[in-house]
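[Automated response] Your request has been received and processed.

Submitted sequence:
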Amino acid sequence: MEWVVSPKRKHVYEALGCIGNKRIEMNLADGAKVYSSSRNKFYTVNFDLKNNAIMCNDNTSYYTDTLSYPCIALPLNKGVISYNPLFA
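Generated structure:
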Protein backbone atom coordinates (compact mmCIF):
# COMPACT_ATOMS: atom_id res chain seq x y z
CA MET A 1 0.00 0.00 0.00
CA GLU A 2 1.32 3.44 -0.87
CA TRP A 3 0.08 6.56 0.89
CA VAL A 4 0.60 10.09 -0.23
CA VAL A 5 0.29 12.36 2.77
CA SER A 6 0.47 16.15 2.76
CA PRO A 7 1.80 17.67 5.96
CA LYS A 8 -0.12 20.22 7.96
CA ARG A 9 1.32 23.71 7.64
CA LYS A 10 1.98 23.98 11.38
CA HIS A 11 4.15 20.85 11.25
CA VAL A 12 6.30 22.39 8.51
CA TYR A 13 6.85 25.47 10.70
CA GLU A 14 7.67 23.25 13.68
CA ALA A 15 10.20 21.33 11.56
CA LEU A 16 11.87 24.56 10.45
CA GLY A 17 12.02 25.73 14.07
CA CYS A 18 13.53 22.40 15.05
CA ILE A 19 16.31 22.85 12.51
CA GLY A 20 16.84 26.50 13.48
CA ASN A 21 17.10 25.57 17.16
CA LYS A 22 19.50 22.73 16.36
CA ARG A 23 17.23 20.11 17.92
CA ILE A 24 18.03 17.47 15.32
CA GLU A 25 20.94 15.10 15.86
CA MET A 26 21.84 13.11 12.76
CA ASN A 27 23.03 9.52 13.18
CA LEU A 28 24.32 7.12 10.58
CA ALA A 29 23.15 7.70 7.02
CA ASP A 30 19.44 7.23 7.43
CA GLY A 31 18.28 8.44 10.82
CA ALA A 32 18.15 11.12 13.46
CA LYS A 33 17.07 11.99 16.97
CA VAL A 34 14.70 14.94 16.96
CA TYR A 35 14.32 16.64 20.33
CA SER A 36 11.16 18.30 21.61
CA SER A 37 11.18 22.05 22.18
CA SER A 38 11.70 21.48 25.91
CA ARG A 39 14.46 18.98 25.03
CA ASN A 40 13.18 16.58 27.69
CA LYS A 41 12.30 13.88 25.14
CA PHE A 42 13.35 12.87 21.66
CA TYR A 43 11.86 11.03 18.71
CA THR A 44 13.69 8.53 16.55
CA VAL A 45 13.25 9.09 12.83
CA ASN A 46 14.49 6.84 10.02
CA PHE A 47 14.37 7.78 6.36
CA ASP A 48 14.79 5.31 3.49
CA LEU A 49 15.48 7.38 0.39
CA LYS A 50 15.56 4.33 -1.89
CA ASN A 51 11.99 3.35 -0.95
CA ASN A 52 10.86 6.92 -0.22
CA ALA A 53 9.74 5.87 3.26
CA ILE A 54 9.97 7.60 6.62
CA MET A 55 9.33 6.13 10.05
CA CYS A 56 9.02 7.93 13.40
CA ASN A 57 7.98 6.97 16.91
CA ASP A 58 6.13 10.16 17.88
CA ASN A 59 2.42 10.10 18.70
CA THR A 60 1.29 12.07 15.65
CA SER A 61 3.01 9.66 13.27
CA TYR A 62 2.03 6.60 15.25
CA TYR A 63 -1.69 7.27 15.74
CA THR A 64 -2.69 9.37 12.71
CA ASP A 65 -2.05 9.55 8.98
CA THR A 66 -0.26 12.87 9.42
CA LEU A 67 3.38 13.74 8.84
CA SER A 68 4.74 15.12 12.09
CA TYR A 69 7.45 17.74 12.46
CA PRO A 70 10.20 15.15 13.14
CA CYS A 71 9.26 13.39 9.88
CA ILE A 72 9.54 16.66 8.00
CA ALA A 73 12.68 17.90 9.76
CA LEU A 74 14.86 14.95 8.75
CA PRO A 75 14.52 15.23 4.93
CA LEU A 76 14.77 19.04 5.23
CA ASN A 77 18.00 18.71 7.21
CA LYS A 78 19.41 16.11 4.80
CA GLY A 79 18.71 18.36 1.79
CA VAL A 80 16.18 15.94 0.26
CA ILE A 81 13.57 18.71 0.46
CA SER A 82 14.90 22.14 -0.37
CA TYR A 83 14.02 25.23 1.67
CA ASN A 84 15.33 28.70 2.33
CA PRO A 85 17.56 28.49 5.45
CA LEU A 86 16.37 31.96 6.49
CA PHE A 87 13.00 30.36 7.34
CA ALA A 88 14.65 28.13 9.94
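Summary generated for your ticket: The radius of gyration is 12 Å. Strands lie at 24-27, 31-35, 42-48, 53-56.
If you did not submit this request, please reply to this message.
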